[in-house]
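Researcher: Let's do a round of design. I'm pasting the structure tokens now; please hold your answer until I've finished.
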């Protein structure tokens, strides 16, 4: 007899039960990044986040302040995501992870210091950053 796993929804929010949408949220790529980023961080389990996903909709509908700390190799995707969130009126901060390739390589202290110095994104500096990264 062959057993099958029951069907599961793919559009999930990792740690959804523990997220306080009224507090700021830190978006990272993977689970180990989220461990370093600390409470109220959400690994998007990849490098993209679609506009119609549950996570995107939760962020914009709750007017959650967002800290973005995606891996260095997906900078252009991160900027596109920031732009999309800005279109919805979200308050988005970009955390500089350079010279690390991802948040998981940092100590918690290093990450927290960088989070304190995150740049508030708006349409002006989004455009500047996107031009400089091409």
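Researcher: That's everything. Go ahead.
Model: Designed sequence:
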């Amino acid at each position: 007899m062959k057993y099958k796993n029951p069907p599961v929804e793919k559009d999930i929010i990792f740690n959804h039960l523990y997220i306080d949408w009224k507090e700021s949220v830190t978006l990272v790529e993977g689970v180990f990044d989220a461990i370093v980023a600390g409470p109220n961080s959400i690994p998007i389990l990849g490098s993209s986040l679609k506009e119609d996903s549950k996570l995107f909709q939760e962020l914009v509908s709750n007017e959650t302040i967002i800290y973005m700390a995606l891996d260095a190799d997906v900078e252009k995707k991160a900027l596109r995501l920031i732009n999309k969130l800005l279109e919805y009126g979200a308050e988005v901060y970009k955390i500089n992870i350079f010279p690390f390739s991802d948040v998981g390589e940092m100590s918690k202290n290093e990450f927290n210091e960088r989070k304190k110095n995150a740049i508030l994104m708006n349409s002006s500096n989004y455009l500047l950053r996107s031009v400089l990264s091409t």
